[in-house]
Each structure stands twice: as structure tokens, then as C-alpha cells.
Amino acid sequence: MWKKILYILLGIFICVIFALVVFFNYDKIESYIGGADWIYIEKSNDIKDNTPIDITGCNNIIVATNKTIGVYSKAGTKVDSVDVISSEFLTDSCGDYSVVYAKDTNTIYIYKNQKIVSKTSINVEIKRISIGKNGDVVVAFTQNGYRSGVKVLSQIGEEKLTTYLATSYATQGIISDDGKMLYIAQVDTSGLKIKSSIKVVEMSKIGKSSSQEEYMKEYELPKDELLIKLILQKNQLVAYCLDNIYTFNVEIGFEKIVELDESEVLFASADGKCPVVIRRNKAGNIALEIYDDEVYEVEVENIPEDLKALNDKICVDFGDEIAIFNTRARIVSKIRLSNKIEKMHIYNNGKNLAVMYRDKVELYDI
Question: How confident is the prediction for the chain on average, in pLDDT?
């Protein structure tokens, strides 16, 4: 009798252990049965602090909310905070530096790792902001509602350059990793056709030359191209246009590396190790294309909602989940989403991902 009870209890114990193993390893088992070589990853931590509006950061994550700008460690612990009342922010990060612009107060906050380096008030309307590896900040702005220009500020908030454009609008400015070259994206709408160009400024010659022509030159993009964004990849300037992606240097000029078709392209990015394009392919299906040493392509089932890339990590938001690809177009992991997200940001050299919802920010090790 006792042996029978013992066997029953042992059987129940084994079933419980088996159920627990299955429960805690369900994603791995599901991937194995389905023949997949990826797994679902769980959040490492989350941040619930006021209402998140924007996120950025390099080694740590910076969360701009409706009341504060907070810096959080990879464990989700707040390590620094400043009170800011703003409903809109512009952000960027590069190397060890990050910049946060609070639009309602017209204030620029520059961070190095987790500490504020400077806080600067500015009296122009900033349209776009970027920060370089040396901590210099570049802002494209308008003044009095129509006059367009670019300012360069040092990491401690000192003005290094202000230049105004005659007939063009400055849509973006970025600075080289060593801080010696400034690149300004310009769009001229004064004529019958839109013209795009890049103004190149040699920062080291400012104050040493008698005229602007000696340190400032302009290079027009091929005919009818609309310049969308400039990116620096390993100190190589990449111009992302509506119809094509180009590399650029002052000796060779523009060299087309990816041909786009506006009617087919859903997303395109040149922020990571290599250009990434999501578009409808010749078969009519949605495909992810990665332009590395060769073109790697994989078809996806769902229409993506966002694309982010950093180094060798490519994150695609499909609404109900985020798929993380490598540069060979293979999925390495996935993240289940509980709701529609507002933004995602890859940081810490591609090792971490922050996912921003309306009421919280979730942190993942990827």
C-alpha cells in the first residue's frame, strides 16, 4: 500500500518538475520543434518613471519624460536625473556622448556616459540635432520662421560656428569623428526643381582663412535627388536619398552604392555596419536586404513598422514582436511585444535594446 502511494507521489513530483522545465524553457522548446535557430528573449529590466517621450544613450539609456531627463544603468537603476518640463525632445548619441534638446525650454543637455557635461540655452528653433564622437553638437535651425542655418557647439556649450544659408534649407548637420569636418545637408526649393547638396566645412581652418571659400565648399547631388539623411560609417560619409544611397568624399564625389525605388521601399537605414533596405521585391513579397560584402536577402511575412540598426544588429518592429537580424539576414532572436511601441533604441555597441511604450521603457540584452 505504502509502495503504491510512494510511486504515485514520485510520479506527481516528476510531472511537476517536467511542467516547470517546459514552462521556463518554452521559447527554446518552441524554437527547437519549429526548426528555428533563434529564441525569444525576455526583458532584463523595465523603467516606469513618469510618461516617457523619447529615449537615447550610448553606454547607458537616457529617458526623457514629461517631468525629467533620467539616466539609467543597464540594470534599470537611475544614476542621474534633472527636472525638465517639456512635451517634445530631440535626441542623438555617438560614442560616449549623448545630447537631449528640450523644445519647450529651448535647452540643450550634453551627456558624457551618465553625467551631464553642459546645459545650454539657445534662441533659435532647432529642427534637427546631432552629436559627434568628440562631443561637438550640430544643430540645424530656423530663425524668425524662415532663415535657415547651422550652429556647432562644443561639448561644454561654447559656440564654434554659426553659418546661414542663402536660398537653401539646412535639414541636417553632422561632424566627423575627429571634429575636423562638418557636413551640412541642404535642400534648395527656390527653383522649379528641388536641388540637394552637401556643404563641407573644414573646421580647423575657421579663423585662419581670409574668406569662407577657403574652408567651405558645396557639392551638388546628382540631378533630381532628394537628400533625406547623412550618416557617418567608420568616418565614411553616406548620403541617404529618396531614390538612392551614395557614399561621398571630396576627391571622388558621390558614388551610388544602393539603388532605391520610392514606390517599393518601406524602410531604409544606413546607421549600422552596412545599409539595410526593406521593400517589396520583384516577386511582390516584402524582403529585408542587407548590403554588406554581398547582398543578403530574406523575405518576411508581416509589414514592418520600424527599423533600427547599430553595428551588426538590425532590429525590425513587426507590431506584435521585434525580430533581431545579423548582417547575413538571419534572425538571431525575437522579442514579444505586449502592445504598440513608440520607439526602440539600440545602445551599448549593439549589446542592448530599449523599447519604449506609452507608459514604460523595457530593457533587453540582445
Answer: 88
